[in-house]
Amino acid sequence: MSQCKPVITVDELRARLNQFPRLSLADLPTPLLDCPRLSEALAGPQILVKREDLTGLAFGGNKVREFEYSIAPAVEEGYDVLFHGAASQSNQSRLTAAVAARLGLKAVMVGRKDAHAEPVNGNLLLTHLFGAEVHLIESAEEREKVIKRLKSQGHRVYNTSSDGYYLRSVSYVDGFLELWEQLEAQHIQPDALYVCSGVHTHVGLAVGARAMGIPLRIVGISPSPQKDAAKNAQLAEVANEVTQMLKLDLTFSAADFESYGKYAGTAYGAMTPECREAVVLAARTEGLVLDPVYTGKTFGAMIDHIRQGQFTASQTVVFVHTGGTPALFAYGNEILGTS
Ligand SMILES: Cc1ncc(COP(=O)(O)O)c(C=O)c1O
Fold this sequence. Notes:
- By secondary structure, this protein is α/β, with parallel strands linked by helices.
- The chain has two domains: 10-62 and 166-336, Rossmann fold (3-Layer(aba) Sandwich); 72-159, Rossmann fold.
- It has 13 helices and ten strands.
- The strands form two sheets. Strands 1-2-10-7-8-9 form a six-stranded mixed β-sheet, sandwiched between helices.
- α2 (36-42) crosses α11.
- It starts with 9 loop residues before the first helix and ends with a helix.
- The structure holds pyridoxal-5'-phosphate.
- Residues 61-62, 66, 91-92, 168, 196, 198-202, 291, 294-295, 322-324 line the site of pyridoxal-5'-phosphate (PLP).
């Protein structure tokens, strides 16, 4: 792969990253795993898995790396409640609760009373275990009521979704440097990188690659249905905020991003045949555990692209495993095909 001109040296980029306050939460660097039996099963390229599911804390995942940066301001500024609200099987809620426990803060989760809320299992079980105050609700107003009540009681509430938003991508600029160092040590120049595209991990990796002058194809797979062009524009907007925070002479546009919503199926969290196949194949060829909401769908997309012939056996693809594995225990029937 040819190299473009880097806009900054690795040392200078590291120095700029070091200027942000940072918590110590993750076991880093995470491993880079070669998956030869998986490659053989697909008659495809070399597949390397960046094990962000092994960031350590509370079953790991990309949020542990992100929270090192994004929750640091909460500690510096004296917030006493870490708040999160999403699906009942939210990984972010699990890790919000685990980080609050580690920091001695109160955690409050307002989750949706959705199809995976009962029986209490997976991420929801762990969120309870870490001592969070858990509310399962049916309407958004109930969520606002909980926040209002906490504030009226004098709590300072840090929402781990919206507060520190851009810092979560900054963490994956750092994650990119870590990955690239591992690849360079093995003299590997990958032909593509697959990652679940919420927002933050995808953007951070893209900014890291461009900053280093590496024209890497980064394929983002959304866990939710989306309009791809609008999503790519959103990713570019976030990337431009991050480049400003890091004072990088770089501008992104929607054309710099490649993301797909079509592998999400009918809705966020809905099972698809491709996801089920991916979860089972990774488990049975490599003993690798994927999750049913994020990484299973991303892996399914990568398999689809390999079967379309997008990669030859002499090429290398990196899959970023962003974690989420506890949700598997709430999706047993869907994964084993009994529902
Ligand atoms: C397992 C997993 N992968 C990927 C994502 C996407 O995260 P982000 O937008 O922070 O990159 C999430 C978000 O909840 C997740 O839980």
